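Thread: Modeling a multi-component assembly for a lab meeting

Hi all, long-time lurker, first post. My supervisor asked me to bring a structural picture of a complex we are working on to next week's group meeting, and I have zero experience with this. I have the sequence lines for every component (416 residues in total). Could someone generate the structure of the whole assembly? Inputs are pasted exactly as I received them:
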Amino acid sequence: MQKGMLFVVSGPSGTGKGTVCKRVKKELEISISVSMTTRKPRAGEIEGESYYFVTHDEFRNALKRNGFLEYAQVYGNYYGTPKAKVLEKLNAGMDVLLEIDIQGALNVKKAFPDSILIFLLPPSLEELEKRIVARGTETEEAIRLRLGESLRELSYVYQYDYCIINDELQDAVDAVASVIRAEHARVRKGIRELIQSYEKSIKGGFLL
Amino acid sequence: MQKGMLFVVSGPSGTGKGTVCKRVKKELEISISVSMTTRKPRAGEIEGESYYFVTHDEFRNALKRNGFLEYAQVYGNYYGTPKAKVLEKLNAGMDVLLEIDIQGALNVKKAFPDSILIFLLPPSLEELEKRIVARGTETEEAIRLRLGESLRELSYVYQYDYCIINDELQDAVDAVASVIRAEHARVRKGIRELIQSYEKSIKGGFLL
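Re: Modeling a multi-component assembly
Sure thing. I ran the full set together rather than chain by chain. Output:
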């Protein structure tokens, strides 16, 4: 059975990763991995859907059991992708979409060189600032910290496979969906099986 | 100005390249290059739209003037892609789609390493045979010749970037369109300009 493919959407804080991924899931057959975090829930976030919210102790225990595909510390909080569920879905032939930060994405690429990294960019830094401010959950200092970090993170785009600007949400969603569809058409080892099936039908003798 | 991208759809005779490309053009902003050929028009083919139909002498003259991006001889007829129009469109920032045979596609890739090659496959060899027979323009011997050639050509799929099975027409069209959209999101040199524009806005001093 053909395994599923692993896609990673990441990018600087405030580029709209979460919204884009939710919409992609509505349009395609793909499973979104829910991360575990020690960060406090923001208003409207749902346990087991937005994140698995855990204590530092719980996180450390999972880490000791080697239970993460990747994990990273961001602004003092830990974020990790539970490994077992992702592998289970990939093995069952299901694509999986990870919405994680840049450190995490680069770690996934190291562990899974076949994974596809998509970098999501804001249309401009002014817009990024607006979005982080509009979220209303950050202090002025935290906003400054995030913007500085976002700028530093832009240089990682060269280690990504794709870069999509999230200006109009639907355009960004279409672009991510196109990447997922296109990657399934990439010439890879899987093609070999198809061609062998042609060759078998030749040897069956019905043609030549 | 960002140049357009060059996409090539090819594949064995009878895989439905022409129909797929026409539909892609309806869905995306892309220009389809019209080839020049010494082959006789089939019923329903239109001069200047299906092909530019020319004599062997006219073709040789264009060839002497170095007027082709690629040309190839297929089943005793010549086919060529007029160079000037394609370059003009690419330089104007327009994507161009070539619907050409496999020899031609590989020659284009040599001349334009950035071009994207898409291999179109029939769902099975039985189906390919049906389609060539249904076309009704070929003798039994010509059909046998084409099928043998198609099989030989399958091995070239490994030199292509993408491979799409034309089973349901709309699915194949969606897949080609997704490849075109996704390739625009690939991390390439163009990204550098975007990041420089961010850096400029920082130096402008409004942010940090």
